[in-house]
Every structure is written in structure tokens, then in C-alpha cells.
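Table S2 (text version). Query chain:
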Amino acid sequence: MKFLVAWIGRLIKQENAQGPDTTTVPDHEILESSEPSAQDRSVTRPLHDLRSCVLPNGFFIKSGPEIERFVQSLGVLSPLDAEWRQSPCNPQAYIASLKNMTLLPGCKVLLDAGGDAHSDEMEMAFRVFSLRPKVWTMELSDGPQLRFAHPPLSPDIIPAGIHLTGEHEANYFHWVCELLPRLHLYEKMASETDLPLLVSAGLNKNLYDFIDLICSRKRKLKYLDPGMSYRVAQLVYPSDTSRILDVYDRAPSTESTYLSVPLLKDMVATIKNAVALRDEGERKRIFVRRCSAYRKLLNEAEVEGFLSGTDSSRLILVSFLFGIRLLFFRRPMSSSGRPGPH
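Corresponding C-alpha cell output:
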């Protein structure tokens, strides 16, 4: 571990010597490019899981058994959660350091130095369920072979960084239940505090705000253009702690979904402690309405009318912003409806 910390320190000095990072502004202007169209950039690459390529291309910072022992130390599982842990969809989390990988913002697919594609989730989903990729512009065929439009490659090589991007990341639920637990696990188990987080540019500010609540020391964010691909000399990869497959042809089950309940509870406690909101103790009922017609309840007006008539003095009808969401949900209450991504 001392070697890892010293090595990371050298990389940080190398990055600082290169001058200021001009890609760390979320709303940076994207200039028009003369790159070929997405169709012209389509490539087909062998797809492998990522775990099996760690040792030839790097090392495990924390192994699966080490992480399992840590998660077990967080608390006793309920019988239902204990049964869920045996799910074949349990990703068996690990934290790895990988050399010379190419990162595609907006998904967890990584390309190695030889051009092969790697994704633990995508490989498992195709092998077990014959599921297509979550990114609808990608296609899978027997082999498996992954066909996708390779984004233009940034000319700059990122010396080192922590991978924190993935499919459906713009959605509040997926950000909180899939991406943030990876960061929380790394913060709990790693000793270094200086590596930047590699995140997609253009996400809602609410999602970025979570990062400072989870990191004990504020980390630098390196915002990546989703229309580009990036080479990373040394990529730290906290693997999936959750797995939520896009299964539309059958009912959701423990075979296609997994959440690390102890880790999620520990992350929630960390966020609450960081916010340190005053608890007024009054119980309220809240109904969370969506701001748009997307996935809106068909009988929303009927539900709101019913709830308003039951206990109007203790009911709040609201569309939440980030701070308000934390304030209300921290208090003892019951809730209905689904918070949207913003």
C-alpha cells in the first residue's frame, strides 16, 4: 500500500506539471469537429469481463474477499437481505488499478491496449440472459462481440484517475444506487485522497453535489465530454457494488437485480452526517410529483385529491430539488410517489 500511495503521488505531480486542467468545467463549449460520422466510426471488438484482465494489466487494490469482509462488518443482514446476497447477480465487488485503458464516458465499457472491450456487467448479462447492452447504439453478437461507434479519441492522456461513469448515470436512481456506492466503497477502503474523479460532463448539478457529501476531502473532478473517448495511463476502477439489469421481458427478480443493502445504508448515514440538517421531529406525509409527463402517474390527480382529503395539514405536495429532498426525507415520515432524476 505504501508503494501505491508513493506511485500515486508521483502521478499527481506529473499531472500538476502539465498545467491547469481545462476540461473540468461541466458546461464547457464543445467545438464542432470534422471527425467522421458515428456510422463511419463503428467497430467490432471482442467483449470480456473486466475482472479477469486485472492481473495481466494491473493489480487489485482491494480484492473481493476483502470487500466482502468490510461489507459484513457494517451490520447484520435481515433474512431477506441475506438471501439476496446469494443472488447470481451479486457482482462480488473489487477495486482494481489498470494500466493503459481507454474510457468511454456514459458507460462502464473499457478498452484495453489491444482494443478489446471489457465490462463485467455487460458480459454477464449477455452470457446469462442474452440481454442487449444498456447503451442502445451498441450491439452484441455471439463470441461475444461488441459493435459500437468508437468516439473520437482525445489527444491528451490522463495520467491517473478514478472511474465514476456508467449507463443511465443521468437518472437519479441509478446515480444513487449504482455509481455513488462505488465511490463510497472506495472512500471507505482506499488510503489515498488526491486522485481526481473521472465523471461525465453535462449531468445535473444535484448529482455532482452528492460527491462532496461522500468524499471526506473534496476531490478534484475531471469532466469528460460524452462524445469523446479518453486514454488513462493508470485507471483506478471501483467495480459494481450493485447490479440492475435492463430486463423488460420478465418480472424483476433477485436473479436480475442486486443491491448491497449494508453499503447503501452506510452511504446514506455518511450523506446525512455531511449535511447535518436539523431534525424538527414533526412527522409529515409527502407525495412527490414529477415535473414532466415522462413516467407520470396516469391517475396522479386522483391520488393527490385523495391524499389531500385525508390529512391536508400534514401532507406536502412537492417536486423536490436536491437540498429540499434531503431536508424532507431526513425527517420521520411516510412518502408516496417516485422522486425524479432532478
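Notes on Table S2: The longest helix spans residues 172-189. The chain has two domains: 2-27+38-273, 280-337.
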